[in-house]
Specification:
Elements: E1 2-8, E2 14-23, E3 30-34, E4 39-40, H1 43-55, E5 62-67, E6 82-84, E7 91-96, H2 101-107, H3 110-121, E8 125-129, H4 132-149, H5 156-167, E9 172-179, E10 182-192, E11 195-203, H6 212-226, E12 231-233, H7 252-259, E13 264-267, E14 271-275, H8 278-288
Parallel strand pairs: 3-5, 11-12
Antiparallel strand pairs: 1-2, 2-3, 2-4, 5-14, 6-14, 7-12, 7-13, 8-9, 9-10, 10-11
Helix pairs in contact: 3-6, 4-5
GO molecular function: aminoacyltransferase activity
Family: Belongs to the FemABX family.
Pfam family, one: FemAB
Length: about 290
């Protein structure tokens, strides 16, 4: 089940909006979750949106609302909310594409520039794709990456459905780094507004010393800039402080890789829950530990 909620201002314009998805849980009921939502016009709108949620009935035997507004964590009002572990990344890295290419390169870590040259030296090339065969290839490589690095990826059917839905609307691309005719790295990008987001990435177990992911991202950055986008979003790094509840030591390596490209770290509000049935909610939290 899904429901779309909007907060309408005095002028009739939407001040906040979110798409909530219902997740059913055994024994204690479910919850409504808005990934990266609500989107808002101002911080004040978040306060009004939360107030509206407090007065709205929870359909479907739900225990709480879960929200993840994409606003700075330092500005987020937390009164009445309970922090949850992050579902969408609580911190990200945005590369501003407005400078010239030479300036973008200069802002990178020296090792990142070196690895871009290594990939070029070894003949790594990059292409985009959107065919059914390309999508199959990306999914196979993503599954290989998840096995190697021992993380739980989104289900392949979910990735397939997401790409097909967004691609039909001109919002998704696949990008492949290739050497000697074989795919060595790949990415799933989403384009919206002024930003291209690196949503999912994968790499081969073979020939990792040829630095295919560096060729992949440099091509993606140059392509996004050439198409007039303002930002390249690396989508997911650790918060700056290791004491943050959203810090994951397993992300240390990927965070170093992404920070090497330069850009601005943005720490967002994170994931929060608005309980409506306190006793059952505490039971849910206990079971979910």
């Amino acid at each position: 089940m899904i429901q779309r909620l909007a907060l309408v201002g005095p002028d009739g314009a939407w001040d906040a909006a979110a798409l909530f998805v219902y997740y059913r849980k055994p024994l204690v009921g479910g919850y409504w979750y808005a990934p990266r939502g609500p989107v808002v016009r101002s911080i004040d709108a978040i306060v009004h949106f939360i107030t509206a949620l407090e007065s709205k009935s929870l359909p479907g035997r739900a225990l709480f609302w879960r929200i993840e507004p994409p606003v700075p964590g330092s500005q987020f009002p937390v009164s009445g909310l309970v922090r949850s572990h992050a579902y969408m990344p609580a911190s990200t890295l945005l590369a501003d594409l407005s400078p010239e290419e030479k300036e973008l390169l200069a802002a990178m870590h020296e090792k990142t520039r070196y690895n871009i040259r290594i990939a070029e030296k070894h003949g790594v090339t990059v292409r985009t794709g959107s065919s059914a065969e390309d999508l199959d290839a990306f999914i196979r490589l993503n599954e290989e990456t998840a096995r190697r690095d021992q993380f739980r990826s989104q289900p392949s059917d979910y990735i397939r459905a997401t790409f097909e839905f967004l691609r039909a609307r001109g919002m998704a691309d696949l990008r492949f780094a290739i050497r000697d005719g074989k795919i060595r790295a790949a990415s799933f990008e989403v384009s919206y507004g002024d930003t291209v987001t690196y949503l999912y990435g994968a790499s081969s177990n073979a020939e990792r010393n040829f630095m295919a992911p560096y060729a992949l991202h440099w091509d993606a950055i140059r392509s996004a800039k050439a198409r007039g986008f303002r930002y390249y979003d690396f989508h997911g790094i650790n918060p700056e402080s290791a004491s943050s509840p959203y810090y994951k030591h397993a992300w240390d390596g990927i965070t170093r890789f992404k920070l090497g490209w330069g850009g601005e770290r943005r720490d967002l509000a994170g994931t929060w829950e608005l309980p409506r049935m306190p006793v059952l909610y505490r039971l849910f939290r206990l079971i979910s530990r």
